[in-house]
Fold each of these.
Amino acid sequence: MPDEVWEEFLRTSAEGAGDAPKEPSARAREVAGRLRDRPTEPTPWRAHPTAGRPRRRKGWYVAGLVASLVLLVVAVDPGGFVGWSGDGDTSGKPLAQESERPDQAPPAEPGGRPTLDEPFRGSPAARWANGTAGITVPTAEATGWMSKAEVGRALARTRDFLAASNLDPAVLRGTRPERAIALMNPHQKDVTTYVTTSLRTPGKDHDPLLLFSRFDPAQARPAGDVVKTRGRLSFREGRLGALEVTADVTYVYPVAPAGGGDEVVRVIVRRETVVSWDDPSKVITEKGTFSLLSYKTDMTNGGCDNVTGYFRPEFGGGGAAAGTDGGTVDPYDRTGPITAGDGGCATATRS
């Protein structure tokens, strides 16, 4: 190599410009450091799939799967990740809206514990959108008894229900979800009875957390004013020509102890809700309201076997021993539906 070419190579390498090669093992050391910095304490997880009376299930997954995949990819591609797309994009950029079910769980994020200034640190949700911006609403089409414009309004009102149930700051602080209830068909007596009973006297058979996200202000406070979301709506023609809308959304809530302090933990809630916008000529309903067909809920660090009517996150590492019956689950894995099972509490692989 001529001297002038060699000198130019050294100069551009020192300045970080041009196409100067990088040290091959730098990426591997970076990811290994991130994995070492990740919190090691597991957090409790529980799930409630239900259509009517609530039932519980366990999730049985392979613990440490995400870390194993990351290490494998780094071993074969030390300069960067290969074969990842969608939730697997590790560029650090905000994710595009979810338009269909992902085919893989999000990879491991840079390590570190959440703080009041960075409540989503170390979480895949750091790249998710805020509030309703993370809930994809599909393009409306005439369906069943509804025109295209009517379908568009029904989709918007369905998202309004999700916001009123899971994002309203007052509801998150434990107040009654009046705006959400106002969107529910008052003539659906089994649902109205369930909602009224669960909010008045919550218990195992009447748990408001299956529909509404609420924290006891005497136990926990929001860490900031942002809730991260990821999910989507879909629709089809349902029974008697109704518009049937399905919502599959994961919510991530960072919270701190109510009494003060700078500890931050996250509560992760995934909900699958199916509603029916019925033809009033065929079903007794009220204008602007839907009938609730089914609802399923997975929750992480909301309180194992909790019957208080509020999420009760564990602080001080107390959640580590909560999932003692052997199961583990990744609360950020959206690759499959919430499935029914035999109940109980499992351990989350990350928070």
Amino acid sequence: MPRTARQKSYDSIYHVMVKSISEVLLFKDDEDKIKFLKIVKDAQDQFEFRTYSYCLMDNHAHFIIDANGSDISKVMHFINYKYAMYYNKLYGRCGHLFQDRFKSLIVKDDRYLFALTAYVHFNATDLKGYDKNPEDYRFSSLGIFLGKKADEFELIDDKFILSMFSLKEAHARAMYKDFIFKVKSIVDVQREEFKKEGTEYRSMRTILVRDLSPEKIIDIISKKFSIDKLMLKIKRANEAKEAKAVLCFVLRKFCDLRCSDICKILGGMGQSNISRLCSYGRELIKHEKYKKIVEDILEQRAIAI
């Protein structure tokens, strides 16, 4: 039976769920959960999506993700592929880890978004020891919303949802806590949500418009590094390695390109080499020396929706 086309857009908020195949635990211990969230952070650095809520269970995980101009399919392929490679190598297995495609539904309105955060966070109540205090579960974002813990994995944008309750942080957290512990009936309804189709949710958010051409990016990088554009296309030009790494990272981030697409643009480099350069570039832009390059481009791309 053919698959149903996935409903998606580049400026939507999604409820995303990933689940392992029936005979395998997705996370065997806390170290697996830590690794998964670090991969999500790497994906966030790469694609600039926003994460509004998450909760990791033993055989599945829930996220509320704002695409922010990215392709949700590419985002989840990045996350699932990286984690499956880690998992299979660590546990000496091969084959599929995730059950079918990831599930995703577009969030349709404010009420649905509020109920959805409650649903995602209340998954932790199914875990032993957290039925009365889900906010204490390490691998859920509820404690961050309530101000009980720091954002250990630097993933969560809680300000967007909290600002809908109040512009004063302390008051917003108190109101969110009051809300979330009073919506159990709504949460129960959400358990049927993946049987339905969602419609698009919009608000006064900004999205990252990814319409820069690869040629424009190459021109920007060559000027920033004071290097000839031809050097960026020479495979063994070691003196241009950092420039090429940042270029590959930025091409994926701002042009929404796959590694195979970048191969065609730069020529002479295989996908594995491009992938390594993207990873290297992602680490480089964390340093002050290169961070300004991405910030300069970001300032030009964000628009209100």
Amino acid sequence: MPVPAGSPEPLTSAQQELYDWLSDFIGEHRHSPSIRQMMEAMGLRSPAPIQSRLRHLQQKGWITWQEGQARTLQLLGDALSGGIPVLGAVAAGGLVETFDDVEERLDLEPVLGTRGLFALTVNGDSMVDAHIADGDVVLMEPVAEPSRLKEGTIVSALVPGSGTTLKHFHRDGRQVRLEAANPAYEPILVDADQVAIQGKLVAVWRQV
């Protein structure tokens, strides 16, 4: 069972049962389960107890979760709490230097500790020129004030009739232009009040 970094509050038996099941499920499937799947696993007929346990898990520092969006759930494990060692540089032709001494560590805690951080799996190739490929997982930070987004920021946006899309964000007067990083795709133009910006890109995770 992963243990969160820092000093999380202890869990009740019911909360621990759900956390352990979540750990096993995400470890096996590489994505978070639905509320219904959690209900079935816990033998519950109502989503209310699950939502209550999830709120407590988040408040106690064991998970991050956007309420109402089960797929945004992430465990706060300590596997990366010590950082990942940066072992030197690498060139296309071979190693630039050997890995004799580790003098630096890549600290991912500021990223993983971002409030409300959630993950999405990329479907399609519309962002390949931004080095985001089909099957990658993008870590997204919720956007509280879309009006303050910088031009060109990569965002996940909910567009009526099109679902959620990952694109570069631009403003065109009263419209928003969502631009792909692939010339094969036309920009999406939509009225600013018709698009919901869900998050902005923090990092890309690629399983190899």
Amino acid sequence: MTLSLGVLYSGGKDSTLAALLLAPFYDVTLTTAHFGVTDDWKHARATAESAGFDFERLQLDPGVATEAVERIRDDGFPRNGIQLVHEHALERAAEAGYDAIADGTRRDDRVPTVSRAQAQSLEDRHGVDYIAPLSGFGRGAVDRLTESRLDVTAGPSEEIPRADYEAELRTIIAEEDGEEAVRGLFPDHVQTHVTRVR
């Protein structure tokens, strides 16, 4: 009997690599968690379908988006807000009926992260396995692994179509406070979007 696995999926290289690594052992479904603020989840669905994986959307509680945006504003940076959303997404995925859940968090990620205690709590409370297949990989290793299997577009966050929490939180802040506020709260960094799995 093959166990079911829901991978929190943005359409980027980390979550795609996590799915590829786990596919020999699980019936993988790529699961995009979102608040319904944007339709960026369609990019993740297209990538999932082109890679041959099942795809599901996981609706998150809009109240969590509101709380995350307030934390970002209060802190002046996005880390704690994004962490809050990731923890909520893991909870929702754990409640979705999978035997196991996973994400694409890497060893050197600053956010989101999942501590050993958080993982054990999630497993104990929901009777689900939590797997972080990239937790032993640094960014360089992930880059080398994905170069051989994935076609990837990379660029600034605001230019790359991704179905992740940051994109929706940026959209909420832009609508409420303007684009300048977004630039002031979110540091410049490169995001990826997988266009093809070879």
